[in-house]
Amino acid sequence: MSKKRNIALALFVVAFFAFQSNLIAQLIVNAGVPATNLAGSAFGNGITVSGIPEINCNSAQYGSFTNGLTTDLGFNSGLVMSTGSAVAAAGPSGQNASTSYGISYTDPELTAISPGATRDVCIITINIVPQCNTLALRFVFGSEEYPEFVGGNFNDVFGFFVSGPNPSGGNYTSMNVAQLPNGTPVSINNVNATSNPEFYVDNSNNGYIKYDGLTTVLLPVIDVIPCEVYTFKLAIADAGDFIYDSAIFIDFISCSN
Q: How far apart, in Å, do the first and last CA atoms of the chain sit?
């Protein structure tokens, strides 16, 4: 075999494996999955889903994802919700993801956190029955609003609102558990390079997740009463305008010791 053919073969092999590596190291998103399948994507051991989840958004805005461990996301699979196209979450980063569905809706729990969060709202409500007394949640919030629009009116936000019996007495009523350990709600203006920077990841040069900025994996826990019914409302919205998408990645919510 000639020297030129050897070089050509070597270049082909390098290109082939680079292409294969790029395919492997990328999130796989299945948008618009049926509500019953969606519940299975979000909940792990020790949780029974009661009834069919209620979904209020465009079917392109939500779905299940896998292959997360080949990226910098921090966990392998779960539920993704976006203010734009869920499929766009797979990246690569670079050109901004910006899909608008032109629907405005005021959810009082979301606007209590970010008053302008009324655009491209996506809400999923699920009733669950835990078989334990503590639930663990793992999630990552990401956005194309980072870093240019931090501190402005484009304060995209995510809320995870829990209602049901409180083991300490009374009831949880739309209690937002999508918070930092210091109790700060998760939004563009609350988690960034200057505000709570220990929970912020600059993702602008990462090829495997779309959004220019991400939170670290956040790990709130919820105290519950076994065998009681709880309502989980997951909600995300653009604030100020319909452009530049944000998304939430939710790992399995499961019983924890």
A: 63
